[in-house]
Amino acid sequence: MCPTGLTCAGWWAGRRSAGLKLEAALAHFGVDVHGLVCLDSGQSTGGFTDCLLQHGAAHVYGVDVGYGQLADKVRRDERVTALERFNLRYLNPTDLPQQVDLATLDLAFISVLKVIPAVVSVLKPSPAGQLLVLIKPQFEAGPEHVKAGGLVRSAAVHRDVIARVTQGICEAGFECRGVIESPLKGDRSGNTEFLAHFTR
Predict the structure, then answer these.
(1) What is the DSSP string of 11-68?
(2) Cα 59 to Cα 36: distance, rounded to the nearest angstrom
(3) Cα–Cα distance between 183 and 164 in angstroms, integer?
(4) Residue-wise over 143-172: b if at least 16 C-beta within 10 A, else e?
(5) Are β-strands 102-105 and 37-41 bridged in parallel, bridged antiparallel, or unpaired?
(6) How confident is residue 148, by pLDDT bands cut at 50, 70 and 90?
(7) Cis before residue 93, ω within 30 degrees of 0?
(8) Domains of the chain, with CATH numbers?
(9) How does pLDDT run across 113-142, given as a tens digit for each residue?
């Protein structure tokens, strides 16, 4: 059960893991998504999307380079638009019919800093626009810091990754409102991950 009493992504194990990570961020940072238009960057099976919908998001646009991963229950929801086989780095305002209030980022095999310009391009103008970012050290640290199995165990590397990612996003015009450790490890790697909230 989610802290708010909702059951985010509870009916499917893979989505449950992602949904509970986002649930922790929403609760800790006090982010109210009710009525917001959202972008789920790295939609995959739809864990973040499902959680956003259960918290009352008006619409969620999901972008993922993959295809056919999104759970049918999420895909069938009229509040969801899925852009599959789509490289997030090339997203621009003409790809969506409206600007978004909040973007979530849960990416694999790419640094979140590489997609921030594209994500910012579809956010509502400042001072509106929020980001909730899942920081994954295994995809942010240099290869010399990633051990067998994709593990990054060093607390010092974790700190360096968090500092570099938050600084990079702040340089794009945001203010970091806080960073917390994810309550769940990375699904496959078992890595410690972090959740950060940014506003303009």
Answers:
(1) TSHHHHHHHHHHHHHHHHHT---TT-EEEEET-TTSHHHHHHHHTT-SEEEEE-SSSS
(2) 7
(3) 22
(4) eebbeeeebbeeeebbebbbeebbebbeee
(5) parallel
(6) low
(7) no
(8) 13-199 (3.40.50.150)
(9) 999 999 999 999 988 899 999 999 989 887
